[in-house]
Amino acid sequence: AEFFGAEDCILVRGAGTGAIRYGLTSMIKAGQKMLVHDAAIYSTTVTTVEMLGLDIVKADFNDLNEIERVMNENPDIVCALVQYTRQKLDDRYDMGEVLQKIKSCKDIPILCDDNYAVLKVDKISCELGADLSCFSTFKLQGPEGIGAVVGKHEYIAKIRKMHYSGGCQTQGWEALEVLRGLVYAPVMLAIAAETGEEVLKRINEGELAG
């Protein structure tokens, strides 16, 4: 939580999918309306949507005016799900702007799928105004199957109650591996990005024929 400047954090089982599932469970009840981007929802998240019996309302997040229109037409929307990484080739929305627009229409809780974005962007979603950021720590050199939910204490406290059983909790070596990953992954990702930029530059300068 301190690493991302958030109120609270909990590690859960089920990787990024489990993090999203527990996060949504803390925010919304079966049958209620949730706002999502007008694009295909990630397959494992669809499973959670179906499991919770959520009523999905779509808006094109590339168009802030459409977000406002859809929100005004559906005053019973109680939660929003935003995916940080792009779902369509032409997606161009700014995460901070989308979060701000949703909140300005109605102060509902927002959960963000930050998988594949954490430590590759300047700020993760909870640093930009989302209530919860959810992601897999395995993608950050952590142990397999462990997800993180970072953000507002009021929602994470509910998730913590769901994990009262010791068998549900992430602790010991797994928790330590998550922390080690957060130290190593930024360095690894920075080196990979730097190398990618160098390769691109050399190809564009004509070092290779073709």
Please summarize the sheet with the most strands.
Answer: 7 strands, mixed
Distance between the termini: 48 Å
| Residue fraction in strands | 15-25%
Q: Mean of residue pLDDT?
A: 95
Helix count from the secondary structure assignment? 6
Residue stretches low in confidence (pLDDT < 50, at least 5 long) are none
Broad structural category: alpha/beta
* Coarse morphology: globular
| Strand neighbour order, sheet with most strands | 1-7-6-5-4-2-3
Number of strands: 7
| Secondary-structure element order, N to C | EHEHEHEHEEEHH
* Proportion of helical residues: 40-55%
Rounded to an integer in angstroms, the radius of gyration calculated over CA atoms is 18 Å
Structural account:
With 210 residues, the chain is α/β, with parallel strands linked by helices. Helix content is 41%, strand content 18%. The chain has helices at residues 15-27, 43-52, 64-73, 95-105, 153-162, 172-204, and strands at 8-13, 33-37, 55-59, 77-83, 110-113, 132-136, 146-151. Helix 4 links the parallel strand 4 (77-83) and strand 5 (110-113). 35% of the residues are buried. The mean pLDDT is 95.
